[in-house]
Amino acid sequence: MHENLAMNAARPLRQAPDLADRLGAQVVEALIDEVTLAPKPGLVDIRSRGAHHDLDWKLMCVSALALQPTFAELARAGIETRPMLALRERIGAIGREGEARMLDATGGANTHRGAIWALGLLVTAAAREPSDLAPAAVARRAGSIARLQDRHAPAVTGNKGEQACRDYDVGGARGQAQAGFPHVVDIALPELARSRERGDSETAARLNALLAVMASLDDTCVLARGGRSALAEMQDGARLVLAHGGAAHIDGRRRLKALDRRLVERHVSPGGAADLLAAALFLDRLGSEAGHPTKA
User: Fold this and answer.
1) Helices 220-243 & 202-214 angle (0-180, nearest 10)
2) Mind listing the pLDDT tens digit for each residue in 235-292?
3) Domains of the chain (ranges, CATH numbers)
4) CB-CB contact of 168 with 232 (8 Å)
5) What share of the chain is helix, strand, coil (3-state, %, to 5)?
6) Residues 70-108: pLDDT tens digits?
7) Taking the CA atoms of the chain, what radius of gyration do you get in angstroms?
8) 84-106 and 68-80 helices cross at what angle (nearest 10)?
């Protein structure tokens, strides 16, 4: 039943008349694919709230669908605005408007703040040079945009991830983007390809890609809630799942469920890793359609 609901939620997104709308729809499909994937440790998915009390699968889908115009606007900015600084500041404004749209749709819940940043940069970069949609090329262009300073952005947002960056001296979502999304290009996408090549199901391949990111990412969502001890436990647990065959293997699956239970007990959720998985799914789809299939 849940699978049918997920399919119905995504189906209208396929009717997109131009490039910007098509790219915006593909971002939203990636977000729905990410939140529907299960079982994800500590995260909202189609069967669980994870470590959250204010979020669930339905609300995450409502949020993703409400953001489709934002991602289309970001893509359109990538097409229309050639000077790089003007582009950076235009998409910054669109992103802030998108965040307000998200909060209005969710009654104030932060469902996709990180995704607006990460996938917003990537969809802009894809639209800017649609003749080159190889994942690494799109990520490089997104990094070039992210490294520019938006003069109109607030100096301090008060977001928990921003505070965690200061408290624990990590780069967070901004650092990941400015570096060209290395956890997407060098970790998530290769793991996705390796899992597919050895015959894992698509669900297992996507879970393994998520776990590979979790194993090394300094996830500010986890740091903000649980500090360095929670981050170390999450990273060690993700490595252990992969070392025991990943999500497709019975031992790996057992350890994945144990990791989920432990993260829920600690009230921590790897939201940064989830955003990067959604980014990987978006780039994977883009690359495949453009003739650049993901390789291990």
Assistant:
1) 120
2) 999 999 999 999 999 999 999 999 999 999 999 999 999 999 999 999 999 999 989 8
3) 2-7+17-145+167-289 (1.10.4200.10)
4) no
5) 70, 0, 25
6) 999 999 999 999 999 999 999 999 999 999 999 999 999
7) 18
8) 170
